[in-house]
């Protein structure tokens, strides 16, 4: 018999369930990367919406505001002025650009709280598809303002608000879907790798938008809009929400024995598994993230309660119920400040590089991708450390503690040359995005499957939306504050970011100290119980 080709041997090396998980991992990675890809163009195009129009022989001034007083009025072209695209060619351009960011992020923050609750009650595939198609429409709508020569600020703000609302469908949906398929083993590392879609999307968005920004900035929005809409169609055609939809092997054995509890009319199923299946279940990576009888194999010591008629579905958790889960409020506040820093860089970094390094919009956009490259390594590193230490809050606190001096060094060293800027972009990206990535993925998954839920699998989307929605409030405030503060100098913007980082650190330390206190209290109780047992043993003797 002829030997199988290497490619076929590689295919049969993995089970169908493993191939399904790999497919869902890659598909959800691409789907949410497209969301960030469509958010990035606005930060790249800012340098084109308002150009630095100083004459070549003009002596560099301390701020654009001082320069704007000295320049003479210039004759405008049919669709743009020498200083950019109307109405962003005025002296208050930073406030106007900040308003665009704020309108998107404020709508995103408000919509996120509702998105998780709605997402728990609708099919994920349809919900996510509609959101991606809508996002593609409104992203392209912003770019159409270039082709139709639109100079009304409200047109661009409405496009941003509508886009912010429909983009809230993305995060709760993909986290719930990935949660249905992947287990608890090495959660920090797996989700750290998966969460790199954020940085990958930002990098691709920067490169795509930067390709057309200097020639036809409208295409910087239209092309990403078409991409996310096309991936929305792919989502509709191929997304598998749940392992049970394929009748995967992660169902309980059909030969399981059922014992009825006469008091409560609940059935307790104890699966009968052979030795090979038992070994497979002991692998933590095979254990489902959501402990639902319908979607996963359960350990032998795990009892599942169903009603006497065989119904197993639990009602979706309420908003107040999700807030009562220990740690949700603390990590939500921590993400608020961490995301404030991250999104300020997301929306204002290319313009900062343009002003400091005196690069054109395309080169500044390309250079800003290094911050996201650092974010990829930061997210993976945070996941690995938290898995090893088994302490999510301590890992966040450690990285936030290092992020504050890194931000100060970035503001000082970036003015010394391009090489120093590159190094600090990588370091700052890792330290700023590491805690952000950890909280939005592994921490959200931990809290969405907290033991206080008693196996309710319909909480992950709501918990994720609460945490990310609260973080999005910070994401809305960061770019707005940057737009208001930047006219007084970029150093003040960095001071604001360092203060936000310090606040995130304080919240994470509060969570860490609370965990230490509870551990100490539990240890103290155990010691008292042990002492009581010893006394009883001595009395019996």
Automatic annotation (TrEMBL):
TM segment ranges: 19-37, 96-114, 126-148, 154-182, 194-213, 219-240, 328-349, 369-386, 398-416, 422-447, 459-481, 493-518
Signal peptide feature range: none
Residue span(s) of domain Major facilitator superfamily (MFS) profile: 27-516
Record keywords: Membrane, Sugar transport, Transmembrane, Transmembrane helix, Transport
Membrane topology value: Multi-pass membrane protein
InterPro entries per UniProt: MFS, MFS_dom, MFS_trans_sf, SLC37A1_2, Sugar_P_transporter
Record flagged with keyword Manganese: no
Catalytic activity: D-glucose 6-phosphate(in) + phosphate(out) = D-glucose 6-phosphate(out) + phosphate(in)
Listed GO CC annotations: endoplasmic reticulum membrane
Location in or out of the cell: Membrane
GO molecular function: glucose 6-phosphate:phosphate antiporter activity
Pfam families: MFS_1 (PF07690)
Predominant subcellular localization, coarse grouping: membrane
GO biological process: phosphate ion transmembrane transport
Protein family: Belongs to the major facilitator superfamily. Organophosphate:Pi antiporter (OPA) (TC 2.A.1.4) family.
Protein name: Major facilitator superfamily (MFS) profile domain-containing protein
């Amino acid at each position: 018999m002829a030997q199988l080709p290497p490619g076929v041997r590689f295919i049969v090396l993995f089970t169908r369930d493993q191939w399904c998980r790999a497919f869902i991992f890659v598909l959800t990675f691409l789907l949410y990367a497209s969301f960030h890809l469509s958010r990035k163009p606005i930060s790249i195009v800012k340098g084109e919406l308002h150009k630095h129009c100083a004459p070549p022989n003009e002596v560099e001034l301390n701020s654009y505001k001082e320069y704007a007083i000295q320049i003479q009025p210039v004759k405008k072209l049919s669709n743009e002025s020498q200083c950019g695209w109307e109405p962003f060619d005025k002296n208050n351009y930073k406030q106007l650009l900040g308003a665009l960011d704020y309108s998107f992020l404020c709508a995103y923050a408000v919509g996120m709280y509702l998105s998780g609750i709605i997402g728990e009650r609708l099919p994920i595939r349809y919900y996510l598809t509609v959101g991606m198609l809508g996002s593609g429409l409104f992203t392209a709508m912003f770019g159409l303002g270039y082709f139709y020569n639109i100079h009304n600020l409200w047109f661009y703000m409405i496009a941003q608000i509508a886009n912010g609302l429909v983009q809230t469908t993305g995060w709760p949906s993909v986290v719930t879907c990935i949660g249905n398929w992947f287990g608890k083993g090495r959660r920090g590392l797996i989700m750290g790798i998966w969460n790199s879609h954020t940085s990958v999307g930002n990098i691709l968005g920067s490169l795509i938008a930067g390709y057309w920004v200097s020639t036809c900035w409208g295409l910087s929005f239209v092309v990403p809009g078409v991409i996310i809409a096309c991936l929305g169609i792919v989502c509709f055609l191929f997304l598998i929400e749940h392992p049970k939809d394929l009748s995967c092997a992660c169902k309980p054995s059909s030969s399981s024995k059922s014992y009825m509890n006469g008091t409560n009319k609940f059935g307790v199923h104890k699966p009968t598994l052979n030795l090979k299946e038992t070994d497979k279940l002991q692998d933590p990576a095979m254990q489902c993230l959501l402990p639902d009888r319908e979607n996963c194999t359960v350990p032998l010591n795990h009892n599942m309660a169903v009603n006497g008629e065989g119904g197993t579905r639990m009602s979706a958790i309420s908003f107040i119920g999700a807030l009562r889960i220990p740690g949700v409020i603390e990590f939500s506040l921590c993400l608020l400040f961490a995301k404030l820093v991250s999104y300020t860089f997301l929306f204002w970094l290319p313009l900062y590089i343009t002003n400091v390094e005196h690069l054109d919009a395309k080169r500044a956009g390309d250079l800003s991708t290094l911050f996201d490259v650092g974010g990829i390594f930061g997210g993976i590193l945070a996941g690995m450390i938290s898995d090893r230490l088994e302490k999510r809050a301590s890992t966040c606190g450690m990285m936030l503690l290092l992020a504050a001096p890194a931000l100060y060094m970035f503001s000082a060293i970036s003015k010394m040359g391009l090489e120093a800027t590159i190094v600090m972009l990588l370091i700052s990206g890792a330290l700023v995005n590491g805690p952000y990535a950890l909280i939005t993925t592994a921490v959200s998954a931990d809290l969405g499957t907290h033991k206080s839920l008693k196996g309710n699998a319909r909480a992950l989307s709501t918990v994720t939306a609460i945490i990310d929605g609260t973080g999005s409030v910070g994401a809305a405030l960061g770019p707005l504050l940057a737009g208001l503060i930047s006219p007084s100098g970029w150093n003040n913007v960095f001071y604001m970011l360092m203060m936000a980082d310090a606040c995130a650190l304080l919240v994470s330390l509060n969570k860490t100290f609370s965990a230490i206190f509870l551990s100490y209290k539990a240890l103290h109780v155990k010691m008292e119980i042990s002492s009581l047992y010893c006394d009883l043993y001595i009395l019996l003797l």
